[in-house]
Design goal:
By secondary structure, the chain is α/β, with parallel strands linked by helices. It has a six-stranded parallel β-sheet.
């Protein structure tokens, strides 16, 4: 499975935070101009519900780009499980800058924490097995790397990052390539060393993919009985991934068949933002 480069993630964070501020601030925060320029403020951000936190560096980047003199003190780390009314971080600085940055910072934190919380929920259900839960490319446009980072904070794993870092040969690719064997053979030739995964829809296709040398074989909407048969026949030759229409009711039985991976689009596309609140202290002091 793929891993995110720290340098690529950092540059993506800088760029996406910049765009989020551009769309919010535009030509300037006219409401913040109501506040005296020398007014300073302190406050805190709390969570109103149980959650798994993700997005600390995105919050830091928002405040850095708005006003690098603002100070933040975090009281939790990404991946921590927090409870209602728990303080996540405190802040101090220009009241104008704090209020300008507030919504963008919370948007990042609530969205990425929502992903991490959902992933933790699913991962905890299959913790008694050896399966790894994988995300997919069903991410919010423009937020893929951030969401894939949040997936790891919640205890799940990244599938391929995009179309460039691993093969995933699906039904139409197979048809256009002239069959499973042709597709797998060509993939190994085009990019030696890149993982080659292929989608199969029945046991006959699974056996063909296995004999053709696929690294990972996706079982698309297989029955539990056929999954168990595939795991038994595979005998460790390839990695096996279950996919297609998997939900909370079917997740555990599928994990217990012994498949290596289960991919779930819901980890990133069906999320609910974590409920957060930013509160200024009642006493704000002027310079």
């Amino acid at each position: 499975m793929s891993t995110l480069s720290a340098d690529i993630l950092r540059q993506s964070r800088i760029d996406t935070v910049s765009r989020s501020l551009d769309e919010d601030i535009g030509t300037g925060d006219i409401t913040a101009q109501l506040i005296p320029e020398d007014k300073r403020a302190s406050g805190r951000v709390i969570t109103r519900e149980h959650a798994v936190i993700a997005g600390q560096e995105w919050v830091n980047e928002v405040f850095r780009q708005v006003d690098p003199t603002i100070t933040l003190e975090w009281q939790c780390s990404d991946g921590d499980i927090v409870k209602p009314d728990q303080v996540l971080f405190t802040f101090h600085g220009s009241a104008r800058s704090l209020l300008t940055a507030e919504r963008s910072a919370l948007n990042w934190l609530q969205t990425l924490s929502g992903v991490a919380t959902r992933c933790h929920h699913y991962a905890s259900k299959v913790a008694h097995t050896n399966v790894q839960l994988l995300d997919t490319r069903k991410t919010l446009p423009g937020l893929r790397l951030a969401q894939k980072y949040a997936v790891t904070c919640g205890g799940c794993h990244n599938h391929r990052i995009g179309l460039y870092d691993a093969f995933l040969i699906k039904e139409n690719h197979i048809a256009a390539s002239g069959g499973i064997l042709n597709a797998i053979t060509a993939a190994h030739r085009i990019a030696p060393g890149k993982p080659v995964e292929i989608e199969t829809e029945n046991l006959q296709e699974f056996r063909e993919a296995l004999n053709a040398g696929a690294d990972i074989i996706m079982l698309d909407e297989f029955s539990l009985a056929d999954m168990a048969t595939a795991v038994r026949e595979n005998a460790g030759r390839a990695k096996i991934e279950a996919s297609g229409g998997i939900n909370e009711d079917t997740l555990v039985p599928i994990a217990e068949t012994g498949v290596d991976y289960i991919s779930l689009g819901t980890l990133t596309k069906d999320i609910r933002a974590t409920d957060l609140s930013l509160r200024l202290d009642s006493q704000a002091v002027s310079d």
